[in-house]
Amino acid sequence: MTDETTTKRNILVLAMAQTLGGSSGPIVISLGGLVGQELSTDPAIVTLPVSLYNLGLALGTLPAAFIMRRFGRRSGYLLGAATGLVAGLIAALGIYWASFWVFSLGTFVGGFYASYVQSYRFAAADGVSGPLKGVAISSVMVGGLAAAILGPQLVIWTRESIPDVPYAGSFLSQAALALLAIPVLLLLRSPERSGVPQAQKSGGRPLSEILRSPRYILAVAAGVVSYGLMTFVMTAAPVAMVHMGHSVGNAALGIQWHVLAMFGPSFITGRLMARFGKERVTALGLAIIGVSAMVALSGTEIVQFWVSLTLLGIGWNFGFLGATAMVTDCHSPEERSKVQGTNDFIVFGIVALASFSSGALLTSSGWAALNWLVFPAVALILVPLIWRIRRGTTSAPAAV
């Protein structure tokens, strides 16, 4: 099997795995705050389970990068899927026991699974070069489109499936999806059987040198703001919708539309990056996130929630996938494990902080105050990104 054939096969396998693994996030996000309301007596910490999910994701990135560098991506991904299975079982047990902290432990462990799932996008780019990296990344992320349908629908279908224990069935379905991912990931093959493992051992440039690169700093910062703002708003959205008198079903559908919007544009995002450049697509994503906040501030009817969340998802897709592609231009093959792992650690560490603060801010200041904070964060990255675009120093071949 040629490297090109193996790469195409891997992209298909990773897209399938993204469908299964990516469904866990919508389940946790749709129900984490609502289950937290049922199990916690302190309204300030009702979104803590979602925040812990993001914290687990952040803390899992560096160990995941180390394990995959040491034992290979397939072995790492199989370990991640096994972790996801355990996470769903713990969360369901926490609901059955009516224990807020056991449930939160389950979502925290689920974040470790997500740290592997999030790296599928980098695995897709390993076997290609130049503009095709963006196409490979967006092709895998198309799997998230199916996850956007599957995750929220499982919430609707299974939330009352266990009598007298609402929502436990949804987290059992989360465990089942992780179990189904294992045979899919067994199909993954490495196109790099010769040479590259030894090359990776050389390590390339010191990480401290890479971290000082303005190009890498901007790429990471764009990812932080795109993903951080999306999580900041999305974590609070289901709770805000229910507080405004909308049903749990409408809240879950709002998240479904949001996640559909997150991954639906992936059919064209890679081609847009190849044609217009990664930085332009990233800038467009950030601008759309700003528009989503404007819609959220215009009112609290269900349509305004849904339109805002849909725009937020589209903005995330362009912003985060563009930032991911920018990162792949900042390292050589032997540097990729530490550069990609560090990027995800920084991005998802900030995302976890955004998630932690989201619930508290919603409780203390309200939905409008939360959305007003979007604008300065967008401007912080959009200004230097536009400046870089105008200088014409964008989308160069992979840096060494």
Automatic annotation (TrEMBL):
Keyword Aminoacyl-tRNA synthetase listed: no
Record field: transmembrane: 12-32, 44-65, 77-97, 103-123, 135-155, 167-188, 216-243, 255-274, 281-299, 305-324, 345-363, 369-387
Domain Major facilitator superfamily (MFS) profile residue range list: 214-400
Gene3D superfamilies: MFS general substrate transporter like domains
Coiled coil: none
GO molecular function, one term: transmembrane transporter activity
The organism's place on the tree of life at top rank: Bacteria
InterPro entries, per database record: MFS, MFS_dom, MFS_trans_sf
Alphabetized UniProt keyword annotations: Membrane, Transmembrane, Transmembrane helix
Pfam family, one: MFS_1
Protein name: MFS transporter
